[in-house]
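hey m, so remember when u said the tokens were messed up on ur end? i reran from scratch. heres the input so u can diff it against urs
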Amino acid sequence: MGANGQLGFEAIVGRSQALRHITLILKQIANTPLNTILLLGETGTGKDLFAKVLHDESPRAGYPFVEVNCMAVPETLLEGELFGHEAGAFTDARRSREGLVSTANHGTLFLNEIADISMGMQVKLLRLIEDRMYRKLGSVEELESNVRIIAATSGDLEHLVRSRQFKVDLYYRVQSKNRNASIYWTL
């Protein structure tokens, strides 16, 4: 780790052919203008490390890297965590609060275990990716975001799409078949 807390490609340690190949792919996409990247891999394969390195080696490195473990945040709180809320939006909302999308603006929002978000939240995330717009809870005001989204999961997204547990349009927006030419690979 560098003096400023940034990780470079040297943080990826290993000599296997697969790891060298992944590092080469990371180097190729770190400086591209891709807005969405999907990392698929088993638990413990380093998806969080790869996401951080991608951010730190990108033009967005001077801006925040914000990680959200979608599995760890209760479904009822995830929308407020991501998008923020206005005062009075719910019982304990005494004042307005910025969300993590706003915090990550111009930087990277890393959504770890994206397969665990609800269908309703998937729709809101899809809008953020497609239109770069979102709303705080309790607000009608449209806010714009310039954030790169790196999504990761150890889940089988293709199976979840087939079983209608994950929105097909979101799946295509976060991986390479999407019109924004995002990149994905299996670790």
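this time it looks ok to me. Residues 33-186 form a domain with the Rossmann fold fold (CATH 3.40.50.300). if urs says something different then somethings off w ur setup not the seq
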